[in-house]
Structure formats: C-alpha cells, structure tokens
Amino acid sequence: MANYALTLCFKGTAYCGWQVQNNARSVQSVVQDAVEMVFGARYGVTGCSRTDSGVHANEFVCHIKNAPAFDAEKLPLALNAHLPYDIAVKAARVVADGFHARYSAKGKEYVYLIWNSRVRNPFYIDTALQYPKRIDCEKAEALAQDFVGRHDFTSFMAANSGIEDAVREVWYFKCERDGDFVRFIVAANGFLYNMVRIMCGTVLQRLSGRIQEPISAIIEAKDRSKAGPTLPAHGLYLNKVFY
Amino acid sequence: MANYALTLCFKGTAYCGWQVQNNARSVQSVVQDAVEMVFGARYGVTGCSRTDSGVHANEFVCHIKNAPAFDAEKLPLALNAHLPYDIAVKAARVVADGFHARYSAKGKEYVYLIWNSRVRNPFYIDTALQYPKRIDCEKAEALAQDFVGRHDFTSFMAANSGIEDAVREVWYFKCERDGDFVRFIVAANGFLYNMVRIMCGTVLQRLSGRIQEPISAIIEAKDRSKAGPTLPAHGLYLNKVFY
Asked: Residue A27: its chain B contacts at CB < 8 A?
C-alpha cells in the first residue's frame, strides 16, 4: 500500500474541469477510470485544485491514497495507455502518507496565454485568447506589481463565490512576449474563484484605458464591479504547483 | 480587376489537403467559398502547392485571378469572417498579372515538428509527431548535410508518383531543439511527393542505427526502398514560400 502523487498535463477543452460532476465529463473521473484499469479496483484521486471548464494544465498534481504497490517509474506509461490523448501523466512518485495534493500545496503558478494579433491563430483556437490590440509588456508588468503582496482580493473574485476570507499573497506577476504570444504569469499562495482571469482582464483594460483607476485602488475598494472582465477559460493554464 | 496574393495559415487536420477533391473537404474549396462570399461571385483560387491530407501551413500562398477591385488591406478581415477557425488569411496584396502562386515560386521551406518525449503532449496531438527516443540535433544536422545540393531524389519520392525528373536542389537542412520540441527545417527549389516526410524518416533511422548507409549512398541508389519510412502528415508544416 502506498500513496502516489501524479503530475498530469491536460488540454481542458473537452472537460467540465477537474472535479467530478453529474452529467459532465471531468478530468478527475477519466483519471479515476484509468487508475481502476491499472490497479484493478477503484481508488479516490484527489486533485491540487478544481479547475474551471476549459482551463488547461501544464502541470497538475493529484494523489492516489492507499493504492497497491506498483513501480512508480512505470505508472505514467501504464496510466497513459488508458487515458484519452488530451490527458497525459508526466510523472509519478511515491509520497508520504500525509501528502495531500491540495492541502500540502504551498502555492501555484498560472499562465494566461494571449495570441496578440488581429489575425487568429488556427493552431491556438482553444488554447490561447486572441487579443488584437498590441500589448505593451513592460507597461503591463509594471502596473500589475500592485497585485504583489498580501491583500484582500475581494475585487478579483467571482461575485457570490461564498468565500469569507479573500486574503491571498501574490508572489509575482510577470508579462513575457514571444513573437505574437504574450504570457501573463502569476503565482500566489492560493487563488480565489476566477481570480487570475479577472486580474488579467483588469490589466488589459488598464492598458487600453478602459479602466483608469490604479490596481491598488481597485484592490482597496473590495468591490468586484471596479475590476475588469473575467477573461475566457481557454487561455488559462495551471502551470506549476509548489510543495 | 486585379490579381491578389493571399498568405494563409491553416491547421490541416480536418482537410484532405489543399486541392479540391470529390467527396472530401479541401482547404481550396473552403477558401473559394469565402472568396465568393466576399466578392459576390466565384473566382478560381490557385495554391502554391498541393499539400497532403493532415499537413499544416504556417504560410501558404495562393492567388485569385481577375477579381474585382477591393482594398487589399481589408481583404484578410473580410475573408476571415467567412472562414472556419482552422484557416486564417494573414495577409493580402495586389500582385502583377503574371504572378502565379505555384509557377512564380522559387522555392519553399518546410518544418517537421517532433515532440521528443516518452510522454505525449496533449496540446500537440494533431500538430507534432511524438518520438520517444532522444534526438541528437547536432548529429542529425551533420548527417543531413548530404541532402544539400542538386541531386536526383528518386529515393526520397513516394513510389509510383509518376514524376520523371526527380532532380531538385536542396538549399539547407537544419535541426533545432527547443525544450522537448525538435524541428527539422528544410528548404529547396521544389519538393517531390512525400519528399520531406521521407527525408525526415531517414534521418531518424540513421540516428537510431536502423539505417546504416550514409544519406549520400541512399541518394546515389535512386531506390525508394533504401530510404526510411514516410513520417506521418501531422508533423509537417509548409513554413515559407520564396518568390
């Protein structure tokens, strides 16, 4: 008997997100099916976070508790043989009994990927947001520094998400350009519902002039209506989990 | 009345290639439909090459002959509104009467994209070949230099393609690594049927030791059976057309 931590990569387009839901196909249920095929019985698979419908992951960690002995080196190939092409197990390792994919995580890094061109990119229809107006990355990164630090992020949380403590610590917010691709990269000790998508939507509207208030003032206001729009799910990637 | 040259980008997965075929969906027919929507009448659209089923293009050039006057700057957006998401017009310009997308081309550059990892990449299932064995790019590029120059490429042409003159001039063959992605980049004044895919398949088998003969000897033999396999279409991109 052992606990295993799996590192997954998935394209979220065809899924309702990580978490099992009635009448929808979730990444969790598909992974649990593969685990059952490999181990011969059903084991709970617990993820490091819920992810929204259509959100992707370059690195998503989940754990399987009290599963039978299995060569961890061979687990990725065994599971991949039973997973659809849009999900891949990149790595597996045996972890301590106390390890929990979600509660043991110290923080996460998300990437929001933008195809910054007037012409769409046929290869990134489901995997990057097309945004026509030229993004000034230096300016974006500079104004987003207001996010960094320990703040109450009520303004950057989906209204009615029912969370009481909206204080989170943002570690960094970077903006990188690679040709016509722009990446917003943000890490924090935790994220509220839709937080990254609202943060990125606010940065874009600050750049375009639609929002005039500095981000520090929007944080201060603790008012969702002061911030920008929630960007679509298909540009968002869970990129790293810190333990 | 004017001739227009269009630069397209397309993901070839859903198409039987460029050329119109009975009972199959081609890029050409879809572009001709969009041209008809914009110009109000049907005009022939001629491509710079046939491409195989499933092959992609970062840059594919075609021309429309004797079409009505239209602001070339606005043509991409107008056409894109009538094209499916997996095809995009990147640019349009008015060209001389004598311009022909295929016959005026001096050469082309293709890229063969490989995801060089034991674990598949969920984001590149249709757009890169997964190849598990580590590719030594320096070695690959060195041994592929035999391709460069003017040669009879009969060994690197699909058998029975019915072409009499198999002499082509290869300008360069490069191999670049970017993380777990490997790109074979090859340019020539023209390509035979399946030529790039057979060249790349031969390079991989030379690296793995399955093929022992140097590429110069395989060229010399003028015998398709001496060369390596035709790699799958989904890793191949028409990357540039030289005029």
From this structure: none
Q: Are residues A218 and A178 in the same domain?
A: yes
Q: CA–CA separation, B78 vs B88, rounded Å?
A: 11
8 Å CB contact of A89 and B119: yes
> Chain A to chain B, count of Cβ pairs less than 8 Å apart?
50
ipTM of the complex, rounded to two decimals: 0.93
* Average pLDDT value for residue range B221-239: 97
Total domains, chain B = 2
| A213 in any annotated domain | yes
A210 and A233 share one domain:
yes
Answer yes or no: is A20 within a domain. Answer: yes
Are A162 and A77 found together in one domain?
A: no
> What is the spatial distance between Cα A229 and Cα A74, in angstroms, rounded to a whole number?
44
**Are the beta carbons of B119 and A90 separated by less than 8 Å?**
yes
The shortest C-alpha distance from A167 to chain B (Å) reads: 34
Residue A102 covered by a domain = no
What's the one-letter identity of residue B89? Answer: V
Do the Cβ atoms of A89 and B123 come within 8 Å?
no
Same domain, A117 and A54: no
Average pLDDT over residues B70-86: 96
Q: How far B11 CA lies from chain A's nearest CA (Å)?
A: 6
Give the minimum alpha-carbon distance from A23 to chain B in angstroms, rounded to a whole number: 24
Query: Among candidates A201, A235, A223, A236, which has minimal Cα distance to A157?
Result: A223
Which CATH number characterizes residue B176's domain? 3.30.70.660
Per-residue pLDDT at B123: 98
B100 located within any domain: no
pLDDT for residue A91: 97
In chain B, the residue whose alpha carbon lies closest to the alpha carbon of A9 is B122
Q: Which one, of A34, A46, A186, lies nearest residue A105 by Cα?
A: A46
Give residue B1's Cα distance to chain centre: 30
**pTM summary value:** 0.94
Domain with A72, as residue range(s), is 2-95
How far is CA B121 from its chain centroid?
Answer: 22
The chain A residue lying nearest B91, using CA atoms, is: A119
Q: pLDDT tens digits, residue range B157-172?
A: 998 777 789 999 999 9
